[in-house]
Amino acid sequence: MSTPLRGRRLDPDARREEIVAGALRLFTEHPYAAVSTTDLAGEAGVARGLINHYFGTKRALYLEVVRRLTTIPEVAVSELPPGTVDVRAGAAVDWFLDAVERHRGLWLSVGTGAAGDIDVDAILAEADEIAADRVLAALAPDAPDDPYRARLRSFFGLVRSASREWLVRGTLDRAGTRTLLVDGLLAVLRPGVPPGRSDSQV
Fold first, then answer.
1. What is the per-residue pLDDT across 99-108, written as a single tens digit (0 to 9) for each?
2. What is the pTM of this model?
3. Residue 26 belongs to what domain range?
4. Which of 72, 77, 43, 70 is nearest to 58 (CA)?
């Protein structure tokens, strides 16, 4: 993604999105303390005052970036391919691995659950609930909320651990991480397939 051109007239929502996109690029490549408000403004192609206007502080912008990174967007679910639960689960894991690979640095600092930041922890907890909603709706719509939501939250812990094994320790490659996560997701969801219905009917 290239740095936006300066001087373009954008509506407030579009300008805000450009600032978030620029901040995502910078926080992916550099730790929080190494990124200044001036850097953020330059990356987004806006005056520094607009960062404060839209977000108030660098910290608030950073937390918005963390929220965007760790929350599964609705479009990621709506665009899953048709097919069996196995096919759709594989596509969902591929989407996740692509996102993690693109934003590796930021994911490792916050997405693995090791940030130790109360605000980031709250965002991760909220992201888990949203993810549970969207995964259940996409892959097991007939599964009861309880206990499958708890199973999915447990699975998200595996996701974070597997990310560290892949990206930090190198004990898993991407293919191995994919296999582990797809198998784990299917194991969590399989009981959600109602008796007498095949995966292809879910």
1. 999 999 999 9
2. 0.83
3. 12-68
4. 43
